[in-house]
């Protein structure tokens, strides 16, 4: 039986990856290691908690001795590393927290994998999950490919870029069998309402202002989270060691256009007159260092592994909105307590 460690599996993307692996691979023993920060939530994975091939471990990847102990108890065959501080706005307020988790935490995992596998890499794999934000910002033309030079602008993307470099350095220096994926913006169920789509859904439900940064003409490529989980599964099993795969939705939207679409869909779902939610759009002070545009060329993973997104943006958004409307208790729980302080500080 294979022992697989997934880090950050109580977060947004991690919960979808853990669920997929637990349900799809009953012959794997899946360990979900998560510190349960503000972004981690056991409610996100409640449906799999009693599965026989699943174990939850609460712990911090920055804690070196804890990580060493965990690895000496379990000889993991594979690691899917998703644990991270993930929100750009929080990285602007507290960059050091991002260095600790994203850089030092990743280093601890790389070290322990190198030391435990001791050059015997047969059947072993370290899959580092990263972002397209490491490539910096595009102008109005062009796409990020796997060969685009790194040029991160936010403390978040700089910390992820640093962790990517360390992963590759361990591959070059110690032969660590790594694989890296860089993905565009995800959306879907269990997304913490600090990011654009879930924050705006929550605010529309509660008739609160929709704070659009700058002129709203920033562009992102959006991918439904379950399609990302499928891509990660495919790359983990079929990708080549020491390779990078970009993952994207072929789905670019200017923020203002996306928000208008979201408002119209929400008006329909909530039985409100069309145009009601759009009145909530409020232009606010821009994010410092705001990247103009991200867009991914995902042709490598498409050609080599046959992956492409399975749902259209309209389908994915509808699934997402339905999930939030059917899970308003979840939304209420995650937006009580410290969320209120965060919101006040960020948007007042
Ligand atoms: P998230 O913030 O929703 O979840 C992060 C998870 O990591 C949480 O469960 C949290 O408790 C856990 N965590 C944080 N610090 C930890 C620590 N020190 N030790 C152990 N666990 C810790 O993030 P997400 O959006 O699910 O992103 C997951 C990964 O995917 C990240 O590495 C992120 O950089 C990457 N990514 C995200 C996106 C996106 O659009 N959200 C896109 C591309 C790549
Ligand atoms: P976000 O969801 O934070 O993802 P990222 O910054 O990692 O791409 O933001 C997506 C886009 O939405 C980005 O251009 C910033 C913008 N945005 C707003 O205009 N208002 C907001 O309140 C948030 C959170 C984001």
From TrEMBL:
Report the sequence similarity comment from the record: Belongs to the NAD(P)-dependent epimerase/dehydratase family. dTDP-glucose dehydratase subfamily.
* Pfam families assigned to the protein according to its UniProt record, in alphabetical order: GDP_Man_Dehyd (PF16363)
Alphabetized GO MF terms: dTDP-glucose 4,6-dehydratase activity
Its BP terms in the Gene Ontology are: nucleotide-sugar metabolic process
Native species: Flavobacterium defluvii
- NAD(P)-binding domain residues are 5-320
Which cofactors go with this protein?
NAD(+)
- Name of protein: dTDP-glucose 4,6-dehydratase
Protein keywords: Lyase, NAD
Which reaction(s) does its UniProt entry say it catalyses?
A: dTDP-alpha-D-glucose = dTDP-4-dehydro-6-deoxy-alpha-D-glucose + H2O
Q: What is its EC number?
A: 4.2.1.46
């Amino acid at each position: 039986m294979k022992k697989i460690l997934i880090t950050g599996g109580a977060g947004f993307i991690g919960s979808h990856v853990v669920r997929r692996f637990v349900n799809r691979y009953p012959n794997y023993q899946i360990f979900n290691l998560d510190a349960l920060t503000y972004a981690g939530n056991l409610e996100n994975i409640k449906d799999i908690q009693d599965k026989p091939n699943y174990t939850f471990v609460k712990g911090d990847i920055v804690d070196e001795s804890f990580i060493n102990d965990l690895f000496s108890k379990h000889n993991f065959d594979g690691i899917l590393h998703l644990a991270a501080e993930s929100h750009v706005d929080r990285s602007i307020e507290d960059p050091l927290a991002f260095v600790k988790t994203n850089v030092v935490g990743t280093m601890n995992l790389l070290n322990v994998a190198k030391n435990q596998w001791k050059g015997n890499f047969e059947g072993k794999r370290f899959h580092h999950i990263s972002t397209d934000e490491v490539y910096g910002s595009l102008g109005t033309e062009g796409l990020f490919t796997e060969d685009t030079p790194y040029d991160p602008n936010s403390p978040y993307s700089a910390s992820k870029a640093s962790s990517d470099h360390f992963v590759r350095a361990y591959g070059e220096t110690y032969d660590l069998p790594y694989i890296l994926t860089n993905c565009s913006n995800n959306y879907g169920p269990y997304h913490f309402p600090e990011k654009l789509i879930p924050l705006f859904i929550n605010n529309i439900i509660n008739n609160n202002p929709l704070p659009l940064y700058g002129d709203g003409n920033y562009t992102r490529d959006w991918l439904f989270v379950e399609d990302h989980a499928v891509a990660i599964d495919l790359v983990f099993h079929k990708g080549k060691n020491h390779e990078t795969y970009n993952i994207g939705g072929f789905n670019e939207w200017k923020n203002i256009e996306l928000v208008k679409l979201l408002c119209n869909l929400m008006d329909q779902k909530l039985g409100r007159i069309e145009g009601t939610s759009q009145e909530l759009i409020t232009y606010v002070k821009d994010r410092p260092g705001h990247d103009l545009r991200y867009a991914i060329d995902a042709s490598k993973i498409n050609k080599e592994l046959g992956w492409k997104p399975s749902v259209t943006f309209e389908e994915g958004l509808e699934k997402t909105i339905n999930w939030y409307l059917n899970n308003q208790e979840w939304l209420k729980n995650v937006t009580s307590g410290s969320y209120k302080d965060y919101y006040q500080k960020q948007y007042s």
